[in-house]
Amino acid sequence: MIPFVKYHGLGNDFILVDNRNQTEPLITPEQAVVWCDRHFGIGADGIIFALPGQADTDYTMRIFNSDGSEPEMCGNGIRCLARFIADLEIQDKGTAAPAYRIHTLAGVMVPKFAADGQVRVDMGSPWILSGEIPTTITAPDQQVVNQLIEVAGQSWQVTCVSMGNPHCITFVDDVAAIPLEQIGPKFEHFSAFPKRINTEFIQVVNPNYLKMRVWERGAGITLACGTGACASVVAGVLAGKCDRHATVELPGGCLDIEWSATDQRVYMTGPAQRVFAGAMEILG
């Protein structure tokens, strides 16, 4: 049996596993699919492992999506991981650090605990060139801003950004009207995205308030996506549709996102909440 703790960030839910005693995840991607099943397993959008740090970091983050794929990063997930690590440290030694340097496949992320209990994460600088995302919509050294593509028999004006993982953002008049369950998979597997894509549909309420719905690569429709919210504000700035500091309203709640004009880094602030703890057999 492997102990776990369930957390969520705005309804984007994860199984957290204490993996600090070894450098590889305790379960396989195939087993992660079983654990994440909402009918036959624990139920989650993904499993996150807290592994030993690398180089100058405190910990390492690995994550398997509910389909068994491994993304580079997860914004809501890293807030949950920070809260999980703090809970482990309090349990072990009665106190926790105010911030952590966490190694991810998208680089080093730095979550800090705010006075109100929320977690503020330095998400690093966005990648905005086509070859960095990656996508073939434009030449590798060009940006993808307000470009027209044909997906599912429709024309869409898109802007693409990477937050260490790839995002395609479309600004629409009404996010509630988007048939996300039908359109999302078409975007995810569109030929111009060689590593697949996370897709955000954004309604600009005003320049500092956005409404967002998301189809996540490897997880489908989720209630929130932290990297997606970050990418959407960056895309909104690039496309001239929003301010650098904005609230992003997702189905699960709101995130505060800032693309700093001073250091060009993106800062995300939001909650991370413990749900329950248990132990699970290694099935699958």
Can you give a write-up of this model?
This protein has 284 residues and is α+β, with helices and mostly antiparallel strands. It folds into two domains: 2-124 and 271-280, Diaminopimelate Epimerase, Chain A, domain 1, CATH 3.10.310.10; 130-264, Diaminopimelate Epimerase, Chain A, domain 1, CATH 3.10.310.10. The protein is built from four helices and 17 strands. It has helices at residues 29-36, 75-93, 180-188, 226-238; strands spanning 2-9, 12-18, 46-52, 59-65, 102-104, 107-113, 119-122, 147-151, 154-162, 166-171, 198-206, 209-216, 220-221, 245-250, 253-259, 266-270, 273-280. The chain has a 17-stranded mixed beta sheet that branches. It is globular. The mean pLDDT is 97.
Q: Structural class of the secondary elements?
A: alpha+beta
Mean pLDDT: 97
Order of SSEs: EEHEEHEEEEEEHEEEHEEEE
C-alpha geometry = globular
Mind telling me which CATH architecture of the largest domain this is? Roll
Produce the secondary structure layout:
Elements: E1 2-9, E2 12-18, H1 29-36, E3 46-52, E4 59-65, H2 75-93, E5 102-104, E6 107-113, E7 119-122, E8 147-151, E9 154-162, E10 166-171, H3 180-188, E11 198-206, E12 209-216, E13 220-221, H4 226-238, E14 245-250, E15 253-259, E16 266-270, E17 273-280
Parallel strand pairs: 2-3, 4-5, 10-11, 12-14
Antiparallel strand pairs: 1-2, 1-17, 3-4, 5-6, 6-7, 7-16, 8-9, 9-10, 11-12, 12-13, 14-15, 15-16
